[in-house]
Amino acid sequence: MRFNRVAVIGVGLIGGSFALALKRARACGQVVGAGRSRANLRRARRLGIIDSIAPNAAAAANGADLILIAAPVAQFEKIFSSLKGSISDKTLITDAGSTKRDVIAAARKHLGKKSAQFVPAHPIAGAEKSGAVAARADLFKGRRVVLTPLPDNLKRDVAKIRKAWAICGARVSTMGAREHDAVLAAVSHLPHLLAYALVHEVANRRNSKQLFSFAAGGFRDFTRIASPTRWCTR
User: For the chain, what percentages of helix, strand and coil (3-state, to nearest 5) are there?
Assistant: First the structure.
């Protein structure tokens, strides 16, 4: 299976790694990127992650046969709205959002009937670094990617998206959107919330510098996913 033009909206760790993995497998032709940071996009092009830069998501999607949306979930409403007039009847869309019911609702709202061309996905993979410089072709190797297909997805389209993620090395499984959100809330979102809450609480104490100076392995291991906060960068 080969995609002629792949559009990656959000060329960070996930989006960039998806592009690199498809390129390594020779499963795509041109990869065009779009995103908020021009500096990051230029870096991605220099690194060979993408072949060209589009001015926006709609321009990236024009002529693409596969689109990956790897932007923060809060941006999906705007992205889907901009894509409606740019996707052909043959364009397939997948995503990397960590929640699914709200993403699906946004797709249905803005894409209408073309939402049937959207096969939601959640790659459960990550790293402590972010941005295009963190992307690597083997990020998804052996990692789980969960598809939450829509009732109106064509079986052949779901099969193509499954194959695309499998080409990247992922172990692809399927579940309903509601079940996905309940499971990930317990094992992914709650740990993130607890880690950020702990770091925030300690950082706002008057003796925060003293407390952080005594932080040992247990504290650092528990709060690793909150590393962008200021205590980890001191």
Answer: 50, 15, 35
